[in-house]
Design a protein that fits this description.
It comes from Photobacterium lipolyticum. This protein is 15% helix and 38% strand. The chain is an alpha+beta fold. The protein folds into four domains: 57 residues, Nucleic acid-binding proteins (OB fold (Dihydrolipoamide Acetyltransferase, E2P), Beta Barrel), CATH 2.40.50; 61 residues, OB fold (Dihydrolipoamide Acetyltransferase, E2P) (Beta Barrel); 57 residues, OB fold (Dihydrolipoamide Acetyltransferase, E2P); 66 residues, Winged helix-like DNA-binding domain superfamily/Winged helix DNA-binding domain (Arc Repressor Mutant, subunit A, Orthogonal Bundle). The strands form four sheets. It has a five-stranded antiparallel sheet with strand order 3-2-1-4-5, with no helix packed on it. Strands 8-7-6-9-10 form a five-stranded antiparallel sheet, with no helix packed on it. A five-stranded antiparallel sheet has the order 13-12-11-14-15, with no helix packed on it. A hairpin with a 5-residue loop joins strand 14 and strand 15. Helix 2 packs across helix 4. The protein is globular and about 70 Å long.
Length: 279
Amino acid sequence: MIKIGQYNTLEVVKLVDFGVFLDGGEDFGNILLPKNSVPAGTQLGDELKVFIYFDSEDDIIATTEEPLAQVGEFAMLRVVGVTNIGAFVDWGLRKDLLVPFSEQRRRLEEGENVMLRVYTDKASGRIVGSTKFNRFLDLTPANYKVGQEVKVVIAEVTDLGYKAVIEGEHWGLIFKTESFGKLFIGKKLKAYIKEIRPDGKISLSLQKAGRGKVDDLADKILTSLERKGGFMPLSDKSSPQEIFEAFRTSKATFKKTIGGLYKKGLIVIDRDGIRLNDN
């Protein structure tokens, strides 16, 4: 079954001067992949990974170009124009993506970057964008487990912290006290389920809970020391930013981890850094 607005792997069934035709099945027939998108050496029977969408004439077409987001995904995209039907954003393809006025929480302006959800409008069948995220999120119960690693994208900044979209399906919150490093709208990263409240709201952490995060970080620190000749100019006196850039962790977790390594006799903590214990 062909998935509009997503990647599909389709068989080449016909070669023509202006491209190749791909097998779209009974529902869609042959789908054109224009010549400028056809990989060199393509032959009949080859299977190609292509993105399927609508061209400027609203005909189904294939491309090997990579969009910045597929249907069902969130992405930060740039507004390249505003017309009487809505705003158009650049999503990496020749035809820009429409964000109808009815799908804008506020009027978008040309030149700004905006967080969007790409989806297929059921009424028209067209691929469009929306800034009304609540229409797509928290529609099903959250079946995550505390401590589970998930993929998230930062969608909003609030007084409490950063609202993030979890696996494209649910809202989650990274409290300011749980945030470190450079977070911004549109950033994609991994996080961990910290708590699922009775009302369904989810809090997130950027680090594994408890012993797991310390053990993982300890291994990373020891490996890094070995690669760097046994010494690193990082210690409990280093700035949070220096520690984050080196290990993507908070200063508190770093201090706890090197303290544990010191107690085990694996490292020595000097004034200017840490080093492996030669003894």
